[in-house]
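Ticket 4471: requesting a sanity check on a complex prediction with glutamic acid. Repro inputs:
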Amino acid sequence: MTFTSRFAPSPTGPLHLGHAYSAILAHDMARAAQGRFFLRIEDIDQSRARPEWEAQLLDDLTWLGLTWDAPPLRQSDNIETYSQALDKLWECGLLYPCTCTRADIKHALSAPQEGVAMHGPDGLIYPGTCRPSAPVTGPRPLDCALRLDIARLLQHIGTAPLRYTETGLGTDGQSGDLILNPAILPAQLGDIVLARREMGTSYHLSVVLDDAAQRVSHVIRGRDLFEATAIHVLLQRALVLPTPIYHHHDLIRDEAGKRLAKRDDARAIALFRSDGASPVDIRRMVGL
Ligand code: GLU
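Returned C-alpha cells:
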C-alpha cells in the first residue's frame, strides 16, 4: 500500500495557521514515507465557496513549499458520483426525506419525554421525527434533505464491531486499534443528513467517497473531526469502501487557548506573508 495522504480545505476563507499545520503535516508524512500527497477542494457548499479563496489557498500552499501529485480534485465537479451513491442507498431503503428545520428539531427535543438533548458530530442528535416505519419507495426526491436510517443500515451490514486504526490522538486520548460498537451508534450519531437540500450531498458522504477515489491510505486532519470518524467508518461499510488509517492531530490554538477559526483573519497565512514571514517561520510558529 502506497502511503497516500491529502489536505482537503473548504475555500470559504483564508488559509490560516491551523490549516497550514494540517497541510504541512499531511504532506511531510507522505513525503517521509515516499508516498503521495493530494489536494481536494471541498467546495460543495456553493453558497460559501469562492474561487478567489481557492486561488489564494493554492497560492499559499505553493508558497509553503508543498507539492501535490495530481491536479486538485474539486468536489463541485464530482456531484454525479455523490448522486450515484445516494441512489444506491436510496434503492436499498436506507435513506428517507426530512423536512425538519433546526428549530423543528430543537422543539421536538424539548418535549418532556425526550430527556436531555444530546449532541453528536453534527450537532443536536436527530429525534427521528421524519423517520418512516417502512422504507420509502419511488424515485429519490431531490428537493429535500435525505437522512440515513442508521438502525436500518445496521440490519443490512450486521452488528459486528467496526474496527479502524487511529495513529494520532482522539478527543479522549484514544489511539491504536479502535472499536465502534454498532449497538450504540444509532443513539450516538442519530440519523445523519447525507444529502442537504441545497447541495445534493453532504460533507460526510463526499469525504468518504473522495478518500476512496483518491485511494487515501492515511487521513491526517484535526482532532475536531475525530467524532465524525464513526460516521465515516460506518459509511465505508455501507458503500463497501476501504477504511483508511486515521491520524487526528492537535489543533493550533491562539494565545488564549482558543481554537483558530477561519474567521480569525489575523492568523491568515497571506497576512504573515505580507508581513515578510518565510515558510520556515510558519513551520516554526506551528511547531514543525
Ligand atoms: N473540508 C474540511 C475542513 O476544511 C476537512 C475535512 C477532512 O479533512 O476530512 O474542515
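Notes from triage: The mean pLDDT is 93. Leaving this open until the requester confirms.
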